[in-house]
């Protein structure tokens, strides 16, 4: 069954090295022994495997220069999109602390390079999703008619970050203030499973993927909600390269989704957001 992976970063050697030695995820990688199990490959090889498994990737850019000193990765995403336009869609990573510079970056990435939307990370920005610094980004997304991916996962052992900034309850505020904005909560607001499911259920414009946390305690709540409340709101994502995209897609077939819901989760819901057939 074909799939769209809504949180995919190719595990090229530079990308893997960057994760392992990053000032925000370095401690987490060490804690989960990621350096010992990480593998890297050429982009050509990665795409070959993706083609074999009928997987398309949405690459979320990142800009956390203000808080962690890591500059914007958007042009790297553009290079991958250009190399494999049939395989990768991009979301422009934005730093809310940069003000109008971030707005200009979003416009440039969408209008000049064909990115599909914006990507923000309140946890790494050290601001909740409903902070006023994010609001110009949301407004620009509405103007451009593109979605925003809001990371809502409190990564383990990230220095200086607090879990409250990743709360899905703050996304509920954003959905209220921007009812025309399509929002994708990334990482499912874990561990606030029930809250995240209700934010999707009560807001027509909110979707969710729960990459990395599919087998963690209480994660069966996502599956139950998908089958009973929000079959058109859940989206497959792997958080590749922390987990292999193709192996994670196989995992979803064992989680207990109804066949029609599984098809929505793996492909249809994401395709609708991206505006593709």
Attribute tags:
277 residues, alpha/beta, TIM Barrel, 14 helices, Amidohydro-rel, Amidohydrolase-related domain-containing protein, Metal_Hydrolase, ACMSD, carboxy-lyase activity
CATH class label: Alpha Beta
Largest sheet: 7 strands, parallel
Widest sheet, order of strands = 1-2-3-4-5-6-7
Low-confidence stretches: none
Structural class, from secondary structure content?
Answer: alpha/beta
Question: What percentage of the residues does DSSP assign to strands (E)?
Answer: 5-15%
Number of H- or I-type helical stretches: 14
Instruction: Return the CATH topology.
Output: TIM Barrel
Helix proportion of residues, in percent? 40-55%
The CATH homology group name: Metal-dependent hydrolases
Spell out the helices and strands N to C. EHHHHEHHEHEHHEHEHEHHH
CATH architecture: Alpha-Beta Barrel
Using only CA atoms, what is the Rg?
A: 17 Å
How many structural domains? 1
| Number of beta-strand segments | 7
Give the averaged pLDDT, no decimals: 97
Shape: globular
The span between the termini is 15 Å
In short:
This protein is 44% helix and 11% strand. It has helices at 13-20, 26-31, 34-37, 43-52, 65-68, 74-83, 100-111, 122-125, 135-144, 168-177, 193-202, 220-228, 245-252, 259-274, and strands at residues 3-5, 55-60, 88-93, 117-120, 148-151, 183-186, 206-208. Keywords: Lyase.
Q: Please, could you describe this protein's structure?
A:
With about 280 residues, the protein is of the alpha/beta class. The protein has a single domain (about 5-275), classed as Alpha-Beta Barrel (TIM Barrel). About 45% of the residues lie in helices and about 10% in strands. The protein has 14 helices and seven strands. It has helices at about 15-20, 25-30, 35, 45-50, 65-70, 75-85, 100-110, 120-125, 135-145, 170-175, 195-200, 220-230, 245-250, 260-275, and strands at about 5, 55-60, 90-95, 115-120, 150, 185, 205-210. A seven-stranded parallel sheet has the order 1-2-3-4-5-6-7, sandwiched between helices. Helix 7 (about 100-110) packs parallel to helix 9. The radius of gyration is 17 Å and the shape is globular. The chain starts with a strand and ends with a helix. About 50% of the residues are buried. The mean pLDDT is about 95. Pfam families: Amidohydro_2. Keywords: Lyase. InterPro entries: ACMSD, Amidohydro-rel, Metal_Hydrolase. One of its GO terms (molecular function) is hydrolase activity. This is Amidohydrolase-related domain-containing protein.
């Amino acid at each position: 069954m074909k799939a769209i992976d809504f949180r995919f970063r190719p595990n090229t050697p530079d990308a893997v090295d960057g994760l392992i030695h990053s000032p925000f995820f370095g401690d987490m990688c060490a804690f989960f022994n990621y350096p010992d199990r990480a593998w890297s490959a050429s982009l050509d090889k990665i795409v070959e495997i993706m083609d074999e498994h009928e997987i398309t990737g949405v690459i979320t850019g990142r800009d956390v220069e203000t808080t962690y000193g890591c500059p914007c990765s958007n042009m790297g995403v553009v290079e991958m999109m250009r190399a494999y336009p049939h395989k990768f869609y991009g979301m422009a990573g934005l730093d809310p602390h940069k003000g109008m510079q971030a707005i200009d970056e979003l416009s440039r990435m969408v209008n000049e390079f064909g990115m599909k939307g914006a990507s923000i990370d309140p946890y790494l920005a050290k601001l909740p999703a409903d902070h006023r610094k994010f609001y110009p980004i949301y407004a620009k997304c509405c103007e451009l008619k593109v979605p925003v991916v809001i990371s809502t996962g409190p990564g383990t052992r990230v220095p200086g970050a607090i879990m409250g900034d990743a709360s899905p309850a703050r996304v509920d505020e954003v959905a209220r203030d921007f009812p025309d904005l399509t929002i994708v909560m990334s990482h499912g607001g874990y561990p606030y499973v029930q809250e995240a499911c209700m934010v999707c259920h009560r807001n027509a414009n909110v979707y969710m993927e729960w990459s990395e946390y599919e087998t963690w305690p209480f994660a069966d709540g996502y599956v139950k909600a998908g089958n009973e409340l929000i079959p058109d709101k859940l989206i497959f994502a792997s958080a590749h390269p922390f987990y292999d995209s193709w192996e994670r897609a196989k995992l979803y077939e064992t989680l207990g989704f109804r066949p029609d819901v599984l098809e929505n989760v793996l492909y249809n819901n994401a395709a609708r957001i991206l505006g593709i057939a």
